[in-house]
Amino acid sequence: MYDTPQSVVLYNKRFMEYSNNMDKDLYLLTAGALLQQRRDAAQLTLAEVSRRSGVTIAHLSRIENGLADPRLSTLQRILDVMGGRLSDLEAPRIVTVSVDTVLERRAEGRERIDRVGLGSSDPNDRLKRKERTGLTSPLSGPRWDHHDHIWQG
Hints:
mainly alpha, 434 Repressor (Amino-terminal Domain), 2 domains, disordered N terminus
């Protein structure tokens, strides 16, 4: 089933908005990933979609991996095989959150890390944790000094 010309115009308008707001390569990656998800949900292989749509497997793969910028007619043929529409490839809206929310989520994440025993990501804290637990680095023993060309340690 083909979209009406009005929806194609709307798709082009949305694509231009996305192009202005985000890198085209990122849009192609996103659209390709959404296309692959749709194909997986339809339980179709690249070969099956290729046979039904007339698009080569190599080109389908490049589209799904964001390496090709397909024509709208090509996308429509691919989506027809999967029972999709061009609007299915619409990039998700960017959600903004407040600084307070970011700080809360950061604190929650740190608490979870501490609970499972991974501790801080601060290098000094990691070194102290290694000393407490008795873990040593392979670099703590003898090692070759490349500058002086001698063994040290």
